[in-house]
Structure formats: structure tokens, C-alpha cells
Amino acid sequence: MRDMTRPDFVLVGVPRSGTTSLYNYLDQHPGVAVSRLKEINFLAYPGAEAARDRYPWLSFPVTTTAAYDALFADTGDRVKVDFSAACFRSEVAIARIRELVPQARLLVLLRDPVTRAYSAYLNQVRKGYESRPPEDALVPGQRAVENSYYCDRLSAFMDAFGPERLRVWLFDDLKHAPQATLSTVFEHLGVDVELELDTSQVFNKASVPRNALVHRLVPNHAIRRRLTRSMPTKVLALTRTAWHLNQSPAPSLPPEVDTRLRHLFEDEVRQLEGILHRDLSSWLPEAADGRR
To answer: How far apart are the first and last CA of the chain?
Structure first.
């Protein structure tokens, strides 16, 4: 019998690969109940000390089973989906999924590792965590780059849950053929595949500060997180509005950085082609050279 209090599905990754857009699209489906709180990270929670020391940039708003179950209360017969992209890198997520949602099936969104790394870098700039130019920040050893290596973690999830319980989609498909891609997601979820949703908006797009002075004066993401409980709601809303109004579309990744990263990820992409049994040549250096 299906567990009526825990999620039926978990999106376990990958950050900056269209997960926010997918969350908002699925929220439109009457047969789906996405968690009221996105990025729950309960299944990725490694304990307070490890969270503080190893994942200081992540929020773990839910740390108890009671609070976790409450997020999915009153959802009736709708299919429940936990969106926690931090699971992909968490060393405890596989064990916690097995323990806490043993029947859940998994969803993974992947993206061209170069554009994902650049999007992650821009997100850090936008939130005030990063000030270096991309040629200095997007190098081996930096989190934005290292998190674009998928094969080892994807293989670990596949080995743990099997192909019948884990499905992989690509950001490119969601971007260029959203309705067709969503139909395959609906099929995996076991809900109406014919329903057409509004996919006209792209959520959480990469951006950069429009005005450096305003960016410095408005409390950044890290400060707002710390002040959430003490700052009046209206003041917090105003700072969020000012922060968002100061954002403009991100520039393209400098060609020389793009080329360097594509060569860096070339072996990874070729290995991923074998895992997914899919042509990913558009992510390789030759294809990128042809586009320029």
C-alpha cells in the first residue's frame, strides 16, 4: 500500500539545471502535490555539525520527521514530490532515502556541465558570495566547477535504486521542448500525461547586479537568511524587491573560459553518454567551436 504521508517521488538533483522551473510547472498539475517548501533538504541532512561545517551555503529548514511529514499533510491522493536538489551531493542522501522514503522513485535533471557551472557561478555572484571574474572562479577545485561532474554520483544513485526507480532528464529538453518533456515526467509520476501547462516563464534565471553600489547596500542572500526571523516582514519584502529589481540578464561566458571548461569536462561528457545512452556531442568542445 502506498504511504500516504511521505513523498512518492524525490527530485534529487542537480542544482542550476532547471529544477525551479520544473517545480513551478508541476505545481500546476492537479494530480501532483509538490512540497510547499522547495529545497527541503531533509533527505540530504547530514546532522547539524556537518551541515554547518561542510554545507554552510545550504539551508536545512526541516530536520525532524514530524516537520517533514507536515509539509505533505492534506494532499489527499495527489502524487507527492519532494524537491531537494542538494541530495545529489549529500553523502547521506542515499541511505536516508532508503530509510525514510523506501518506496520513492527519483527524478534527476542534468545540464551541460559548462553552462551549469557558469550558472552556479552567476548565482553565487548574485547572492553576494562571489566577486571574482569567471576566468578566476571557474577553475578546478571550485564548487561551481566540481558540482558539474555528474558520473560518479549518478552511478551511485543508479546502483542504489535501479533504472526502474530513477529517471534522468536534460535541461536542454525542458528548455526547448517543455510540453513533450513534461509528458514524460508525468508518465514517470503516473499522472495525466495529456495535460498542457503554462511553461512560458523560466524561473530562477541567472542574472547579475545592475548597479554595484545598490548591490552592496542591499542585504545579500546570506544576511537576509540570518535576519529572516528578526527582520519585520515588510522590511524583508522590500529588501527582496530592491534586490530583484537590481538584477539584469547575465552576459555570455567568455569564449576562452568556455573552451577551457569544455576540454576539462570532455572525458566526463563522453562517460555520461555511455551511462545515459544518449548523444551529448553538443556539450563537447568541437560543437562549441562550431557555434562560435
So the answer is: 54
The burial class, CB within 10 Å (0-12 / 13-18 / 19+), for 180 is exposed
pLDDT in tens, 106-126: 999 999 999 999 999 998 888
Which residues are within 8 A (CB) of 217 and not within 5 positions of it... i.e. 6 or more apart? Answer: none
Give the DSSP H/E element, type plus range, for residue 69.
helix 65-70
User: C-alpha 233: how far from its chain's center?
Assistant: 27
Q: Do 185 and 169 meet the contact criterion of CB atoms below 8 Å apart? A: yes
- Class of the CATH-defined domain 9-204: alpha beta
Instruction: Give the number of C-alpha atoms closer than 13 A to the C-alpha of residue 194, restricted to the C-beta side.
Output: 0
DSSP code at position 97: H
- For residue 131, give every residue at least 6 positions away whose Cβ sits within 8 Å of its Cβ, in sequence order, or none: 125
Q: Are 59 and 225 in contact (CB under 8 A)?
A: yes
Under 8 Å between Cβ of 23 and 67: no
Asked if 114 and 269 touch (Cβ cutoff 8 Å), the reply is no
What's the pLDDT tens digit per position in 164-214?
899 999 999 999 999 999 999 999 999 999 998 999 988 766 655 655 555
Q: Where are the beta strands (DSSP E) in the chain?
A: 9-13, 32-34, 79-83, 105-110, 166-170, 207-209, 247-249
pTM of the model: 0.84
